Amino acid sequence: MGLWGAHLRMTSAAVLLAGLCSCAAVDGERRPPDGVKTQTSEHLVELELVLPQRYQHWRSDLLQDWHHLQIDLEQRLARWPRQTQAVAKSPLRLTITASPADAHFLAERLKLPGNPLVPRTHPGERLALITLPRDDRLLANRAHPPRTWRETVRHEMVHLLACDRPSLGGAPAWFHEGLAEAMVALKPTPFPDVQQSAFGSSWVPNLRELQAVDGGGSMALHTVLAGEASEIRYSAWACLVLQLLQEQKSTRPWQLPFAHPTLAEFLASLPTAYGDVLPSPLPRGRELDFEIGGKELFMASLPSKAVVLQAGSWQARQPLSFQMRVGRTGAAMAGMVLRSQADPNQVLRIRMNTFGAVVASLESLQRPNTRAYQSRPQAGATSGWRDFELQVQNDEYGKAFLQLQSADYKRNFAASFTAPFQIEFYVVDGACEIRSQEPFLPLSHLR
Ligand SMILES: [Zn+2]
């Protein structure tokens, strides 16, 4: 077994395991005419990719990532020679399951250790297992794998490829995790931004705050990271590993003093203003698909888990219009939260359920509202798009108030709840899509 074991990238992560349809996967361009699986070339190794039937259209994206990663790692990891496939004897395998239930079933059948809902590479078996968060039609209809999930797949692909470099086996877990996390963007730099990975540089402010505490800066980086959330830990390791690979020639760079800086030394190695602004949009949980400046958002959570996207601010000078639809798996609750700087003790929450019914109310942060859905449920077997429009209106005395309209459902909110607003979209135990005619995921920053 390798040293890295369970991969805990993102605590609320969902990746999938399992495809029970055994489709041996090969790179189409290099597949021998007789279909026999062989080593594809001196430099490219096949991946045996098992994808559930409903997600077969993602195969080319994932195999493309596999090839790009190999080409990149061939240079970065040249000092740790790769064993040939003849020595390896068995292929490297990635199995995707369509749902957590399938993941549990497969892990039991293969007697694999650990929580099968956590993406994980089993080096002894040369096998990575990743599950999709739920087998929802909205997810299956995506033309490409969701952004955060694809990042997780690339992370596990790096662990798989590391299996073929035996001299890397002596590296500590933090080096393996940092290496895998560094490659989620395909074009990694030591200082990734939100264009490269969904989480961007949002981990840096936490570490700068720790440094500001008395004596915090003189603590060993690895000691500090041990107490941090996995997102922060993995991102910092990724940064450190890329710097090590770039600046050190040793075949055991993890033993050098460079690999064991204090927190202050590590932060001093980052660009001065790096991480000073929180990226927006900023995701929490998994899985999400979005682009900076985009008009569309997809979110899907593991059963009973939440996914949130802090989507930026709205000044309310123009109406805010969007459409939303909710998948029909789970007890889905999806919607939007607006926060007002002028009224920080409550939020405006819009909820939509799997039947397309909605309710919106101002809620105290101390006592969340559990008001019943009030609008008419949508007809039909599949979820439909529902329109929402928020805008500021004036009452008969000229006083401004916020109004929500969604088909037959209209609500006015207290005049004290005023712009600017911070916007969050979320889904709990389900999947949803949100879209707009105009870009609604900002290019700007939250602070
Ligand atoms: Zn990992």
Structural write-up:
By secondary structure, this protein is an alpha+beta fold. Among the domains are: 28-170, Glutaredoxin (3-Layer(aba) Sandwich), CATH 3.40.30; 282-435, Jelly Rolls, CATH 2.60.120. The chain is built from ten helices and 17 strands. A seven-stranded antiparallel β-sheet has the order 6-7-17-9-13-14-15. It has a six-stranded antiparallel β-sheet with strand order 5-8-16-10-11-12, with no helix packed on it. A four-stranded mixed β-sheet has the order 1-2-4-3. The protein is globular. It starts with 46 loop residues before the first strand and ends in a 12-residue tail after the last strand. Residues 4, 7, 9, 155, 159, 177, 180 line the site of zinc ion.
Helices and strands, with pairings:
Blueprint (H helix, E strand, L loop, with lengths): L46 E4 L8 H18 L8 H4 L3 E6 L2 H11 L9 E3 L4 E5 L5 H4 L6 H16 L10 H10 L21 H9 L8 H6 L3 H18 L15 H6 L13 E3 L3 E3 L5 E5 L5 E9 L5 E7 L6 E8 L5 E8 L4 E7 L21 E9 L5 E7 L2 E4 L8 E8 L2 E5 L12
The protein binds zinc ion.
Oligomer: single chain
Which stretches are low in confidence, meaning pLDDT under 50 for 5 or more residues running?
A: 1-40
Distance between the termini: 45 Å
What is the radius of gyration?
24 Å
- With strands numbered from the N-terminus, the spatial order across the biggest sheet is 6-7-17-9-13-14-15
CATH architecture title of the domain at 282-435: Sandwich
Give the C-level CATH assignment of the domain at 282-435.
Answer: Mainly Beta
Give the proportion of residues in helices.
10-25%
- Which sequence of SSEs, written as H and E, runs from N to C? EHHEHEEHHHHHHHEEEEEEEEEEEEE
Strand proportion, as a percent range, falls in 15-25%
CATH topology of the domain at 282-435: Jelly Rolls
Mean pLDDT: 86
Q: Kindly state the number of beta strands.
A: 17
